[in-house]
Amino acid sequence: MTTVESRTEVVQAISGKWTLTVMAKLERREIGFAELLTETELDPRQLSRVLEKLRQSGLVERFIQPRNSIPRPRYRLSRVGSEVLVRTGELAAVWAEFHERKSSFSLRATSGISPQRSR
Questions:
Q1: Residues 53, 59, 61, CA angle at the centre, nearest 5°?
Q2: Contact at 8 Å (CB) between 92 and 81?
Q3: Which of 74, 91, 64 is nearest to 31 (CA)?
Q4: How far is CA 108 from CA 32, 65, 99, in A?
Q5: In the chain, N or C: fewer CB atoms in 10 Å?
């Protein structure tokens, strides 16, 4: 697989509307389905689809935790999922910085303030 193909695969894996929201909820702890429903306010079918896509992509792990003799499914980010979330945060910071500079430049241009030139 080429670098372009692998990058495309990652983008497709995290491009869903709720994907990064769910990943962020799993960033610091293992969590059950009902807790995720409450925290994300998604409907159960949507959340199931997002979790399944993340699991198939290898970004989230599902495991069973026995609790009072009742098995409870839990979810956590995989090692790769954690790394992807960190890198996505870094990318978001770069994007925000770029747009902040772009907005600052636009404000100067519309206010009639020209950037000072070096002499």
A1: 90
A2: no
A3: 74
A4: 49, 57, 14
A5: C
Query: Rounded to a whole number, what is the distance in angstroms from the first to the last CA of the chain?
Result: 51
- Classify residue 28 by its DSSP letter: S
Take residue 41 and report the two structure tokens written for it: 């306010």
For 67-93, the pLDDT digits (tens) are 787 888 999 999 999 999 999 889 888
* Residue bearing tokens 């636009």: 106
Rounded to two decimals, the pTM is 0.73
Would you list the domain boundaries of the chain? 3-111
Mean pLDDT per 10-residue segment, the chain (119 residues): 69 84 94 94 95 94 87 94 92 86 66 53
Q: Is 45 helix (H, G, I), strand (E, B) or coil?
A: helix
DSSP state of 14: H
Reading the block at residue 11, the tokens are: 């983008």
Q: Which two tokens stand for residue 13?
A: 């894996």
- The type of residue at 83 is E
